[in-house]
Design a protein that fits this description.
Layout: H1 6-9, H2 18-31, H3 41-57, H4 60-69, H5 76-94, H6 102-113, E1 133-139, H7 141-144, E2 148-154, E3 157-163, E4 172-175, E5 191-197, E6 204-206, E7 209-217, H8 218-223, E8 225-231, E9 234-240, E10 249-252, E11 269-276, H9 283-295
Parallel strand pairs: 1-5, 7-11
Antiparallel strand pairs: 2-3, 4-5, 6-7, 8-9, 10-11
Length: 296
Amino acid sequence: MEFIDYYKILGLDKNASVEDIRKAYRKLARKHHPDLNPNDKEAHKKFQQINEANEVLSDPAKRKKYDQYGKDWKHAEEFEKARQHQRQRSYSSQGAESFGDDEGNFSDFFESLFGGMGTRSGRRQTKYKGHDYEAELHLGLREAYTTHQRTLTLNEKNIRITIPAGVENGQRIRLKGYGAPGMNGGPNGDLYITFVIEDDPQFKRLGDDLYTNTEIDLYKAVLGGETTIETLSGKIKLKIPAGTQNDSKTRIKGKGFPVYKKDGAFGDLYITYKVNIPTNLSEKEKQLFTELSKLR
């Protein structure tokens, strides 16, 4: 397995704080988001790497394993159990003086676990972890807005999972033990699910923020007024300032997308006004607009 430097992917060093990791992830995720780079395969690959790096480094337990074992961090538990087993054997069979040879035995275990020539005569068969499975789960934007449960069918088995609100397009999660069966009594592999968030006809999502357009008539744009707009959490009334220009924008704080695994935290909603110019004017209307133009 090729070593992936998660710190390098996020542009950080090993002393980075949790806040440093969060800021770097949000900045890079916005830059390489598939919605902003729809035809760029490299950006899509980079986005997946950024999500994977954040998933590991933002979790203290995973980060500790990664810092200690590098590319083999997912097998940390097997390593620790093997190390403990080898130490017990060394002490019980040869005494504490033989502790220095323990590292060689431990290296033998690593070799057999990851593709060595098998077990030596007289030793137990090595336990192998089963292969991991990969799957895609397609969600609508409005489905990803709320925490909900889904039932997946894998090898004729139903798996119920809870999907937290705010999952990103391209985000990858792991379900431990739902992969292929292990060998020689080894643990099952894992199931990795990549979320694919479908486009929404009304809202566009960038990170935790949402973007949408709303039409207003010419008279409200000129004179000001109110309009009712739809958000993902329900309809709200919006005041329109007098003199609102076509394509001008306004921001509604906290009406964007929920922040992943942060209860009560939301992005913002950005609204672009589209001024609807009247057509098929009557003669009277044309006359009034003509008079108005003379006043200007």
